Amino acid sequence: MTLTIALSIVLALLFVATGAGKLFGAKASLEARDHFRMNPALWRTIGALEWAGAAGLVVGLVTWEWVAHAATVGLGLLMVGATITRLRYDSKPTGVVVDLALLGLLALLLFLDR
């Protein structure tokens, strides 16, 4: 249970940080958006979904467990989309590896929560 709590908090903080970059227009985030040829509204929506997922991970720890499960699945789907986008537009494997590592951690979180 302790590992579940720690992993949930770490992932929530990570997704809050990446979502903030998208929502508030951090320079590196805007450069990535332009590199991936993404619509600005879609980019901000992804940031908002990352924040919603992070909130769901934390809420699921203190109240309804199903909220954390739904948030984990939703964030996992975002990471699948991120991986596909990187494979289409990026030639560097590091971004894909990071996306897949996060997807793996989200899958681990679901497994630990059983």
Automatic annotation (TrEMBL):
Membrane topology summary: Multi-pass membrane protein
Keyword Transmembrane helix (UniProt): yes
InterPro entries per the UniProt record, alphabetical: DoxX
Assigned GO CC terms: membrane
Pfam families referenced in this protein's UniProt entry, alphabetically: DoxX_2 (PF13564)
Keywords recorded for this protein, A-Z: Membrane, Transmembrane, Transmembrane helix
Membrane-spanning parts: 41-64, 95-112
Locations listed in the record: Membrane
Name of this protein: DoxX-like family protein
Organism of provenance: Lentzea flaviverrucosa
